[in-house]
Amino acid sequence: GIQVEQSPPDLILQEGANSTLRCNFSDSVNNLQWFHQNPWGQLINLFYIPSGTKQNGRLSATTVATERYSLLYISSSQTTDSGVYFCAAANSGYALNFGKGTSLLVTP
Amino acid sequence: NAGVMQNPRHLVRRRGQEARLRCSPMKGHSHVYWYRQLPEEGLKFMVYLQKENIIDESGMPKERFSAEFPKEGPSILRIQQVVRGDSAAYFCASSPSDSETQYFGPGTRLLVL
Fold first, then answer.
1. Cα-Cα-Cα-Cα dihedral sign, residues B50, B52, B58, B64
2. Which residue of B lies nearest to A41 if distances are taken between CA atoms?
3. B48 and A35 in contact by Cβ < 8 A?
4. How confident is residue B39, by pLDDT bands cut at 50, 70 and 90?
5. CB-count exposure of residue B35 (10 Å: 0-12, 13-18, 19+)
6. By CA distance, what is A42's nearest residue in B?
7. I need a labelling partner for B74 at 20 to 30 A (CA). Which of A27, B14, B23, B31 fits?
8. What is the pLDDT of residues A34-58, one digit of tens each?
9. What is the per-residue pLDDT for A93?
10. pLDDT number for residue B100
């Protein structure tokens, strides 16, 4: 199956800082999603973005399918942004392959 | 529009018992997926179902695990004769079709004593 690698594995930010999380994938994709797993363990959908750019408030994402990577931007980070961010991709439509995640801690 | 619902949220079983995990997809979604999050292995795909059909169960352990999505009612993930290694978070997701956004439920945390 498709391989998904995320970087960095860990990130500590002060409140208000910006950050960029990266996701590399090994094959063409027809599904790519970003998730936030909050400290309570819930997986929150952030973006469905197999290609192109999307924005939602302080978050935005860009996927360059031809170069096989996706970026998640977090601006003006808040303590509630803490948690693990997962990238997941599929090249057969349904079986999402998850990366190992980026663990983000935003300090006051 | 209610999201994906899973119950129970927490389940404790003793070794050898059966665990039944339920998932109600979002309204209008006929595609259901189950994933498992093990502490050291991350999130892994288990099975993909449509109403009354198993489409892909390539991620399911060969023994003790089964899944169904009947015409009426929720999808069920059944684990027979649980062992400690089955302790994990089990997530269900749904979508209106494949190749679309999968929306995840809150998960069921299974603890096997």
1. positive
2. B106
3. no
4. confident
5. buried
6. B106
7. B14
8. 999 998 899 999 999 999 999 999 9
9. 66
10. 85
